[in-house]
Automatic annotation (TrEMBL):
It comes from Streptomyces griseoluteus. Pathway: Cofactor biosynthesis; adenosylcobalamin biosynthesis; adenosylcobalamin from cob(II)yrinate a,c-diamide: step 7/7. GO terms for molecular function: adenosylcobinamide-GDP ribazoletransferase activity; cobalamin 5'-phosphate synthase activity. Pfam families: CobS (PF02654). It comes from the Bacteria. The lineage of its organism: Bacteria, Bacillati, Actinomycetota, Actinomycetes, Kitasatosporales. It is a multi-pass membrane protein. This is Adenosylcobinamide-GDP ribazoletransferase. It is found in: Cell membrane.
Amino acid sequence: MPETPPPDPLDGPRFAFGTLTVIPVRVHRWDRTAARAGMLCAPLTGLAVGLAAAALGVLLLLLGAGPLLAAVASAAVPAALTRGLHLDGLADTADGLGSGKPAEQALAIMKRSDIGPFGVLTLVLTLLAQAAALAGLYGESWARGALGAVVSGAAARLALTLAARTGVPAARPEGLGAAVAGVVPVPGALAVGAAVTLAAGAGGALLGPWEAVRAAAAVPLCLVPAELLLRRCVSRFGGVTGDVFGALAETAATAALLVLCLGGTAPPAG
């Protein structure tokens, strides 16, 4: 048998970037220890994806494109950097949940290569919501749009960290869901969540106190619908799958953008 390579501090980031993005990173370890470190590092991949999305959106604004085109480009970057896997997971999960079939049959529906009506409708509405939210943010300022792209990217992957916590089972014995299900200790997941929330608030603080509060609030608030979806999937399918992880990421990203759009500009002083 081939020898298992010794532990490396970069095993976690390698696992995260190698499995959650198309960035060419070689994964040296594929075991529960590496999976645990990788899922704890998942928000780092979201930060990288979000920064890329923000960079393209701001570049288009500087070149004279309007907020809508910048928003569409920012929404497209995460899809490109994940080969559309999260969007595909969202569509498959919608088809599985909407099928009304028993768990085993619903999981079989999710494994098919085609997309059903529930998946198509969910994809269209989700992408429209993301583009509309980003357009509103870019319309107010390039900085708010960029902040939205980055915060939503990190928050989306934080949802994956929390979904991989201890106590959440896998629906299948194979696949990415089985590889990462239950690997993250709950205290570790909560610590990462607190770190992402503080980082979002710090980023928002660059634009003012009101933006700091809104950016920090967007992280825990976007996790509420993601957690509700997770519980529904566990109840419906018996656990999580790779598709469910994708659906959770898109749900959290969309919810974070919607929260960042609420409240308008900073309230007047006094």
